[in-house]
Amino acid sequence: MRALFFDRFGDPDVLRVVERPDPVAGPDEAVVAVTAASVNPSDVKNVAGRMEGTVLPRIPGRDFAGIVVDGPADWIDAEVWGTGGDIGFTRDGSHAELLLVPAAALVRKPERLGFAEASVVGVNFVIGWLGAVETARLAAGETIAVFGVSGGVGGAVAQIARLLGARVIGLDRTNPDRTPAASAIDEFIALDGDSEEIGGRVRRLTAGRGADVVYDSVGGVTTAAALAAVAPRGRIVVISAVGTRTATIDLIDFYHNETRLLGADSRKLDVVESARRLAYLNPHFESGAFRPLPITRAYDLEQGGEAYRALADGTRGRVVLQNSTFHRSGGSR
Q1: Structural domain count, the chain
Q2: Where does the record place the Enoyl reductase (ER) domain (predicted)?
């Protein structure tokens, strides 16, 4: 099979397209012919050596959608999708023609989504669900402020929160127009002021109280604003750190407000645990309640290094690798 491959950390130039042995399913395993696989910011960071626990040499890639070609008989030819905090890090990933996964990681792709659309869901919606639902316990009637709402994770959180019956305030440098988040938010705040000003805007929209939950999908440069925006006894979920990995907290304000500061990490969910979350999400994609972020650029697997470079250079939206050989066989919608 053809695959992207790296045996040292660095910029996207360290990636090579190579021939690797075709994986063969053993007991309780399956092989997926990867039709489409998104390139996430965490994939770029992984190749750069900025993620923990990666074992080299490695095929990168976390998210995928494709067709089962080897494994349990009742799964052969099934259209599946997936993601995982292990694939691309400690087991070979999805930026290849074939992917070996545990059979327990198989979950059927929503029929409503094509392969490319399905391939951009995994990381964004799994961490969105993990942070908002499992970690923050967001409830109907609460208000959530979503930092980074125009991005993949923020857009996923906005849609999840809307489904739960929460009021959604979106915050970002750019307006989420033309993204699925646009119809999921009640109010939008541009991140164009200092932290206290941004927190004040959230409080003005919540009768001075602040947001019950603040989902900070940016982190670092937005931490102070997140703290300024949270309600008494409110919960802040942090999944990232942009610009700086440290933050200064006024501990007296922090404990007087009884703020809950929570971390959520999708890397802790392997491909099997992630599949369980995707199974929860599947009906909402089938119904149209959830929609993936639009795809910005699509590349053939042979152009994998270019795809990584585009994302590293700041391309917004979703970048996808497609297996052109499988496309010619008629396997994709």
Answers
A1: 2
A2: 10-321
